[in-house]
Amino acid sequence: QQPVQSPQAVILREGEDAVINCSSSKALYSVHWYRQKHGEAPIFLMILLKGGEQKGHDKISASFNEKKQQSSLYLTASQLSYSGTYFCGTEAYSGAGSYQLTFGKGTKLSVIP
Amino acid sequence: DAGVIQSPRHEVTEMGQEVTLRCKPISGHNSLFWYRQTMMRGLELLIYFNNNVPIDDSGMPEDRFSAKMPNASFSTLKIQPSEPRDSAVYFCASSFWGPGQPQHFGDGTRLSIL
C-alpha cells in the first residue's frame, strides 16, 4: 500500500523552512527519502530505521515516529538547489524473509529567489 | 565508482514493436529493481531480483512484460508487443540485499510508444 505524502506541492522563498510528511498504514522497518530533479534519477538522501535516531546532514533532517508509522523531512534555510520532487519510500516486511520498498507520489518543492 | 548504467536513454518506437531495456547494476550489489514512473501513478515497482533470482513480479502489468537477470551484472526488461500506454520512464535500481539498504537509481530510459 502506497504511503501518503503531504503536501503535494510547496513553494518557498530562499531561506524559508519546509516540512514534508509521509505516513503509512503498515508496520514499517524503515523510511527512505529521495529527491528527484526534473529529467533525472531519484537520488538517495537518507534512511531512518526502526529504533534509530533522527538523521540529517547539512540543513536537511528527518524523523521517524514508529508508533504512528509516520516520517517527516525537514528542510531549513532552503536553497535554490533544494528544488525538486521529494519521495518517501516505506519499507515493510512482505513475507518469505523479504522486505519491500513502496514509494509515495512525491512532494514537489520549488524554491524561488 | 560507476553507478547503475541503463541503456538506451531514450527509445521511440511504434506500437507492436518489441522493446528491450538494459541495466548494469553497481558492482557488488545483489538486489536489482525495475521501476516505471508516470505522472499518474508515480514510481511503481515492477519486479525485483535477489542474487539474480526474481523474487516478486507482482508489479509487472501484464504478460507482455518480462524481465531477466542472466548474471550479477546484467538485467533486461522486455515489452512485447509494446502499446502506447507503456510510454513512461523506466528506472533500474540496485542495492545490497536486505532491509534498510539504500537503492541507487540509474538515469532511466524514457520510452515513447507511438
Can you give a write-up of this model?
The complex is a heterodimer of chains A (113) and B (114). Chain A has strands at residues 4-6, 9-13, 18-23, 30-36, 43-49, 55-57, 60-65, 70-75, 84-95, 98-103, 107-112. Chain A is built from no helices and eleven strands. The radius of gyration of chain A is 14 Å and the shape is globular. Chain A is an all-beta fold and 113 residues long. With 114 residues, chain B is an all-beta fold. Helices cover 0% and strands 54% of the residues of chain B. In chain B, the strands form two sheets. In chain B, strands 2, 4, 5, 6, 9, 10 and 11 form a seven-stranded mixed β-sheet that branches. In chain B, strands 1-3-8-7 form a four-stranded antiparallel β-sheet, with no helix packed on it. The mean pLDDT of chain B is 95. The chains are: A mainly beta (113), B mainly beta (114). Chain A binds chain B through residues 2, 29-30, 32, 40-44, 47, 49, 87, 89, 91, 93-94, 98-106, and chain B through 42-43, 45, 50, 55-56, 91, 98-100, 102-108.
Give the tags.
heterodimer; A: 113 residues; mainly beta; six-stranded mixed sheet; 11 strands; B: seven-stranded mixed sheet; four-stranded antiparallel sheet; 0% helix
